[in-house]
Amino acid sequence: MDSIYKELVNLPGAPSFEKPVRDYMRKHLKQTTEEILEDRLGSIFGVINKGSTGPKVMLAGHMDEVGAIVTSIKDNGLIKISNLGGVKGNVYLSQHFDIYTDDGEKIPAISASKPPHLSRGDIAKPKELKFTDLLLDIGADDKKHAEQLGVKIGQQVISRNDYTVSKDGKKFFSKAWDDRFGCGISLEVARDIKKENLNCELYTGATVQEEVGLRGAKTAAGLIKPDLFIAVDCSPCADVFDGDESSGSIGDGFLLRFFDPSAIMHQGMKKHIIDLAKKHNIKFQYYRSKGGTDAARIQLENGGTLVATIGMPARYIHSTTSMISEDDYKEVKKIVFALIKSIDNDTIKTIKENV
Ligand SMILES: [Zn+2]
């Protein structure tokens, strides 16, 4: 994979703490686009082919990753946290984390779990561990010591699972594929798409606070007012669980997200993407999701907006780590480039007529 992905996924960025990711995006977009646009919540986009008489196309990943926030420090120096985004307490047990201080310094932490030696004889065991029952241990002797080491209420907590390549060299593990992957695609588009191949005004970048209710998508779309919004986001595959033919498998191509609880894919858009994939020989799979993406929010903006989600198959997202495959990365890239290049005023008109 391109080296930008390794750099992107190793950055910390819980919802509302996206600054390091935004700085990285800005640095790259400045080199490759004509103008930088940032909204007041922190989403960032670079503009290519500005002033085009064609439609406005907005492409985005989201910069935030699921994480946690420090809510209190107990007298014994252990730290209580609350989740930021949809992650369950159980997956936070027995893990390594970093608490980030205000100046970006890392404080290593582990989540406290009771060893079996100490729990023999326990009768009632909770089925699901609540976030409020979790404790982080940084090795502080007491509350004062934890504060001296730099811990404060309101700091972000990020799991420590840096970029790792599988033994076969084709799968990649990280805490933050969801959705630094989409951020990386936006940067690759900014770098590699040729302006002369565009018949649209392209806004490529990333949103904030997707994981806590698609917030950045709303504000960014209000600013850009796109004719078409394309979300590139990782979606959870059930291939190693009890999946079926529309619950996704890694290695089988990009996910055509025809249905999720907050967005049914526009029928004209679906036809257009399938035609494109067939024309260019791009591998895809039909995918239904139980979650939503930024596209769900933007379809409701500005009197209704055409949207599409290009799904990247991923395993284990919304936990402390996840996995993607290089084969899917190639297919996602192909369809995103083909889709952007296919858009002009006539295509938008045809897509709309095919509702
Ligand atoms: Zn996501």
Quick overview:
This protein is an alpha+beta fold. It has 2 domains: 3-65 and 175-353, Zn peptidases (Aminopeptidase), CATH 3.40.630.10; 67-159, Beta Barrel (Elongation Factor Tu (Ef-tu), domain 3).
Provide structural commentary.
28% of the residues lie in helices and 27% in strands. It has helices at residues 3-9, 19-32, 116-119, 143-148, 177-192, 215-224, 267-279, 294-298, 326-342, 345-353, and strands at residues 35-38, 44-48, 56-62, 67-73, 79-84, 96-100, 106-111, 135-137, 156-159, 164-165, 171-174, 201-207, 228-236, 254-260, 263-264, 284-288, 306-314, 322-325. Helix 1 packs antiparallel against helix 5 and helix 7 packs across helix 10 (345-353). The chain folds into two domains: 3-65 and 175-353, Aminopeptidase, CATH 3.40.630.10; 67-159, Elongation Factor Tu (Ef-tu), domain 3 (Beta Barrel). It contains ten helices and 18 strands. A hairpin with a 5-residue loop joins strand 6 (96-100) and strand 7 (106-111). The chain is of the alpha+beta class and 355 residues long. The strands form three sheets. Strands 1, 2, 3, 12, 13, 14, 15, 16 and 17 form a nine-stranded mixed β-sheet that branches. The protein has a six-stranded antiparallel barrel with strand order 4-5-8-7-6-9. A three-stranded antiparallel β-sheet has the order 10-11-18. The radius of gyration is 21 Å and the shape is globular. The structure holds zinc ion. The site of zinc ion (ZN) has 6 residues, from helix 5 and strand 13. Zinc ion (ZN) binds at residues 62, 178-179, 210, 233-234.
